[in-house]
Amino acid sequence: MMCVLALMALAQVSAGVIALAAGLGATSASWPGSIVALTAFFAALWLLSAWLFRKAAREQTIAAGQGRTAE
After folding, report:
1. Residue 23 class from Cβ within 10 Å (0-12 exposed, 13-18 middle, 19+ buried)?
2. What is the mean predicted confidence (pLDDT) over 36-56?
3. Contact 1/53 with Cβ under 8 angstroms?
4. Residue 63: which pLDDT band, with cuts at 50, 70 and 90?
5. Burial class (CB in 10 A: 0-12, 13-18, 19+), 42
6. pLDDT band at 14; cut points 50, 70, 90
7. Which residues contact 24 (CB under 8 A, 6 or more apart)?
8. How far apart are CA 3 and CA 34, in angstroms?
9. Phi and psi for 47 in degrees, rounded to 5?
10. Reduced to 3 states, what is the DSSP secondary structure of residue 29?
11. Which of 19, 25, 59, 67 is the most buried (most CB within 10 A)?
């Protein structure tokens, strides 16, 4: 799951790079800054969720391992 979410962050960054290269939104007053900021924000959200899923999976594995030794 974490790998898929990290790939989604990469896809988000790729979309931002394509938007910058194509000049999408170039008529806006805050043109490159808004694309860069929003791309970084959403990529960070993807990476944060990947990290949280990884953390939850590790805690679940640890809890399952402790449950077996208590039997």
Report:
1. exposed
2. 96
3. yes
4. confident
5. middle
6. very high
7. 35
8. 27
9. -70, -35
10. coil
11. 19
